Amino acid sequence: MSSSFGMMYEVALAGIIVTMALALSRAVLGPTVFDRILALNMFGTKTVLLIAVAGFWMGRPDFMDLALVYALVNFTGTIAVLRFSRYGNLASDTVRASRGDA
User: Is the pTM of the predicted complex or chain greater than 0.90?
Assistant: First the structure.
């Protein structure tokens, strides 16, 4: 691997880390729960990119398997958190207010 490719990977890693820091700041600042969930989902997506780029930088392209598994876990977790924040549980599609339990 030539030196210019190594430098490109380092710049890409630095850029990904900066965007991860910005996503974490958005997750902390909010203002709504959906902003926080979206920021954490973006952080997870950037983590997938970080794993993939770091794997190629270290000469280990098999890290792509780890990145794909992490992407699936991130997606499933985001859907579960959104569903829980909307319905209050993960088992039912009905909103609690429709049962009269307001």
Answer: no
